[in-house]
Amino acid sequence: MSDALRALYQEVILDHYKRPRNWGRLPQPTGHADGHNPLCGDRLSVDVQVEGDRVADIRVEGQGCAISVASASMMSEALKGRTVSEVTSLFDRFHEVVTGRADAEAAPLGKLAVFAGVAEFPARVKCATLAWHTLRAALDTRSGAVSTE
Amino acid sequence: MNPRCASVLDTPPTAAWPPDVERLRDDFPALRQHVGGRPLAYLDNAATTHRPAAVLAALDRFYRRDNANIHRGVHRLSVRATEAYEGARATVARFLNAARPEEIVFVRGATEAINLVAYSFARPRLRAGDEILVSELEHHANIVPWQLVCEQTGARLRVVPITDAGELRLDSYERLLTERTRLVALTHASNALGTLNPVRQLVALARQHGVPVLLDGAQAVAHVPVDVRALDCDFYVFSGHKVFGPTGIGVLYGKAALLEEMPPWQGGGDMIRTVSFERTTYADPPQRFEAGTPHIAGAIGLAAALDYLRSLDAESLARHEHDLLAYGTARLAALPGVRLLGTAADKVPVISFTIDGVHPHDAGTVLDQLGVAVRAGHHCAQPLMQRLGVPATVRASLAFYNTRTELDALVEGVRRAIEVLR
Known about the structure:
The structure holds two protein chains of two kinds. Chain A is α+β, with helices and mostly antiparallel strands. Chain A has helices spanning 3-8, 11-18, 66-79, 84-98, 125-139; strands at residues 31-37, 42-51, 54-63, 145-147.
């Protein structure tokens, strides 16, 4: 396997792809959004429970490639308990890293740094960010759908 | 007429068999490259084919030597450009066996051609309650333009279902052809599955009901001979870039009598007879539908592509494509967890498949790392994906310049994707 491929499909990513965490729906979310990548047909829906200014709970549901599912799963773990403004700045850093505009050391991401390999695959950036775009729409409590296009 | 795959196999091998594919590959400069250190295996020809050097030379020659606008200048460059552009129209007419060049309208591609027919032919004729017939096999380009005219006119879109093998259900088709049907718009060959429709039969059945037929030939023209007069279709559309020509040029064939009845769809220069602020009269077809400066170089490049094709032994290449299709299909089918979609008896060389536990997008990335270019996605045929119960597929689509070695690389890549992701 090439190094780039190994960096993209790390064990932890494959583990989250095969056993995505926080998968399902919340009974009474404060925000919900559907995300769609029309290029590949991936669909994710995100439920959030915001209490005060904190994300108390997240659930994700849908189907997608390894990158989009693992990204959604790891996002859900990383964001529980964070404030909405922390979520926003983490998304900004995540976006910088997966698009190759910053490296993971300059923009600390914690466990999410495993997605740094995506930068080598520009066609896959939208896979990695679909869950995040959808989450942002859910936080905005817009009930509409978002699209990567 | 059409030496389809099946009938090609029945013909005894000729002296031209097997074709010298390695020599043919030399005609396509972009095929001789490495990507990521691996030799390119380009298996995405249904998205766009590569272009032979003859096409690149024609484009270069036009811009270097004959470059001028057409149908207006008195100077010699303009005369040469006009002759080359109208000569290209004649070449396309011959390629489709149209009755005359005036039945060929140059457009940007199959999509624009269908939109032109929807706007100029269908829309003025449609009333609430009328029906347009398409099928579950269609590309979005042969769905959405009809939905737009349906919204505008109150007409309804009816959909011919397919079998699980991806073949049109002829019994349903016949049942759906009624006195309300105003137009049939069907693909000649499916971009997502490769199914080759029995178009002659489909047109004949529509004829019995007096219904005009548009055929979307985007995926057919690179693989099977097309004779619009033998087919007796009313409209036939295709894109230049899927038949070894340039991007941005495509063709609408329409029967002269129909084109003459149709109003213009875009106004501007080159499509008028006289213009005054009180009243403008329009040029005859095909100029009526070619407002503005067209893609002159594109038309000339397309003609070069069709001339190139004509110089080859179509029968032995069709046989080679069928051999590749059978070989690739058999090898992929032998892999555990690979499910082939589209198993019609009559196919153009498209192999669509899914892999258990491996999303097509991930498979596409792994394949790309091995130099294998495929399409992973819904292939602009979301209703078809829904019908098949999959979000997406991996699609390997072949041209006559592909080889068994490239299919071996595909199979190796699928194996690798399974290793990486399962």
